[in-house]
Amino acid sequence: MSHFLALETATDICDVAVFCDKHPIAHRSLDQAKSHAERLVPMIQECLVEAAIEPERLQAIAVSSGPGSYTGLRIGASTAKGLAYATGARIIAVPTLEALAFPLLQSTNGPVIGVLPSRRGEVYLAVFEADGDSIRRIVDECALETDTFSKRLREAKITTGLICGPGVTRLVESGVNLDGFTVSEISLSAKNVGFAALGRLEKQLFEDTSAFKPYYLRDFVARKATRSIFDRLPF
């Protein structure tokens, strides 16, 4: 009997699931910005208690590895690494956009386009297609201005398919024409991370725990504070 933990922290969603023999048996989810640092570990503890599993019995920790929120990805990766060191579990990195698209790829033969918002006003994009029992990337993860989204798909000769993810809202608000595409309401979740990790678990495709880090895609750029810290002093 195999047990592993799955974590999704790449966006405002903080999501945890415990899997036993390919099935999720405990799940917690919170869609709240800036909650990950405070809530992720308690949610993991709650799931393990519900599943009646001691942390030392975990064989692996599957974590959404990016792209996405810099802070969310760092929290997910550091938590996964801490648990791995403490329990001896191995880390499985699952690309965030692949985890998002994975359930749809099980039910369609056409391309699935995953889209996440970027803090710079861009979107993160990747396109996948089912290829037998495996997944093929038609378009690798990239960051695009919304006005170049349609051009990128045309270059890849993609004119139809399923499109999903929280980045779809940004495309619509920017006036991107999505005619020919079906929008799916599927959202990011630790369950999808876990299901996408199953093949890697069976093949023992683990990360080097000490070297593992998220795939940010974009370099972090700190934003200048709108107010000086001295403006907040009470004198």
Question: What's the SSE blueprint?
Answer:
Blueprint: E1 3-8, E2 13-20, E3 23-31, H1 36-51, E4 60-64, H2 70-87, E5 90-94, H3 96-105, E6 112-117, E7 123-131, E8 134-144, H4 149-155, E9 161-164, H5 167-173, E10 181-184, H6 190-202
Parallel strand pairs: 1-4, 4-5, 6-9, 9-10
Antiparallel strand pairs: 1-2, 2-3, 6-7, 7-8
How would you describe what is shown here?
By secondary structure, the protein is of the alpha/beta class. It folds into two domains: 3-96 and 188-202, Nucleotidyltransferase, domain 5, CATH 3.30.420.40; 97-184, ATPase, nucleotide binding domain (Nucleotidyltransferase, domain 5, 2-Layer Sandwich), CATH 3.30.420.40. 30% of the residues lie in helices and 29% in strands. The chain has six helices and ten strands; from the N terminus they run E-E-E-H-E-H-E-H-E-E-E-H-E-H-E-H. The protein has helices spanning 36-51, 70-87, 96-105, 149-155, 167-173, 190-202; strands spanning 3-8, 13-20, 23-31, 60-64, 90-94, 112-117, 123-131, 134-144, 161-164, 181-184. Strands 3-2-1-4-5 form a five-stranded mixed beta sheet, sandwiched between helices. It has a five-stranded mixed beta sheet with strand order 8-7-6-9-10. Strand 2 (13-20) and strand 3 form a beta hairpin. The longest helix is centred in the middle third of the chain and has 18 residues, at 70-87. The termini are far apart. Mean pLDDT is 92; it is low at 220-235.
